[in-house]
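Reply to dn_fold:

You asked what the input looked like. This is it:
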Amino acid sequence: MLRNQLIRRPAVEDDALVYGQPYETSDGATVITVTRTGGLLRGTHPVGLFVVHDGQVMWTPAVDATRITLLGELIGLLAAVIATLAVLRRPPWPDLKGYGPQRR
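and this is what came back:
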C-alpha cells in the first residue's frame, strides 16, 4: 500500500517533492529517494530517502556539506571584517597624542 502510493509521482511544479522508483537491496530493505524540484532555473536537489526494512520505516535526510561549509566561511569572513572595522575606527590601545614632550 505504501509502495503504491509512493510510486505515483505528483505533477511537477515549483517546490514539489518527487519520489524515486523504489528498489530493494540484497538484505531485503526497500530504498525510496526523495528530491525537490525547483522550477526551470533552480533544477532539483536531493532531500533524503526512506528506508523500509522489516516493517519499519526510517527517514534519512540528505545533508549538503558544501552549503554548510560555505555558510561557515561567510560567517568567519563577516566576523573578520567587523573586527577589522572596529579596530580601525577605535584602536584598543590608548591614544598617546597628548602625552609626549611639549614642543614650543
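Helices lie at 2-7, 39-42, 65-89.
Hope that clears it up.
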